[in-house]
Amino acid sequence: MKELVVISGKGGTGKTSLLGAFAALGEEIIMCDADVDAADLHLLLKPEILESHEFRAGHQAVIDPDRCTQCGDCLARCRFDAISENFEVDPISCEGCGVCWHFCPSKAIDFPENLCGEWYYSKTRFGPMVHAQLGIAEENSGRLVTLVRQEARRRGEEQGKKLILTDGPPGIGCPVIASMGGASAVLVVSEPTVSGKHDLDRVAQLGDHFQIPVLVCVNKADLYWKASREIESLCKSRGYTFLGHLPFDPAFTQAQVEGKTIVEHQSGSAKEAVVDLWRRVHREIF
What we know:
By secondary structure, the protein is of the alpha/beta class. Helices cover 38% and strands 25% of the residues. The protein folds into two domains: 224 residues, Rossmann fold; 51 residues, 2-Layer Sandwich (Alpha-Beta Plaits), CATH 3.30.70.20. Helix 5 packs parallel to helix 6.
């Protein structure tokens, strides 16, 4: 089973809109929203949740006042100043290192696993979908990304699907790295600006590092053709597969307002460009 991960060097380039359109055009697919810090594919696909599961990761110290003798050992050992003079743990400052729990002579400190969020298995009008929601200010997003990708692959293989369409996070950090490993290809959605070119260059280098084929398209290309052509030239010089330019079209926004993908919304140049892009992407993957 193949996996296409749609990513971008920054947010707002239109990768989620494109992935939704690909879902409408694809066959025998399962979708995965790996942008767990700011998941929004569900807004477009309106999934019906079939299963909900807790996501637990990391630990945090909790002092039991009934067992605590206030010896001060934990206060002296904590390098993050997370324990107050009243022997209470500040959950914001605690890094979950476990030193206080390990050395407490009274065994008065518990070290439970954190509840960081939830992940879901759902059905949509285009097929099954695995997605998640990380809690506010919670960490371990990379681990949650790995979990939803693994679940999407497992369930896709059980159902005989041919392709996983993964909506990856923006940027180049840990969640992006977790979303790329083992993928068949990544599609980088860029935009015609100086920062767009720079961000594309950074995220494409991750694909090089993991030896994953890098496909590139420029969204809203006609807003600044000079930058669009520069991005195309950059891709050719670096050996990335450039798949084309997509026009700026308010129909994308109107489709989102209606809860539809661009290919469901109406006919026009934007829809035709997206359909053509999907054909090129499909050829590269298969």
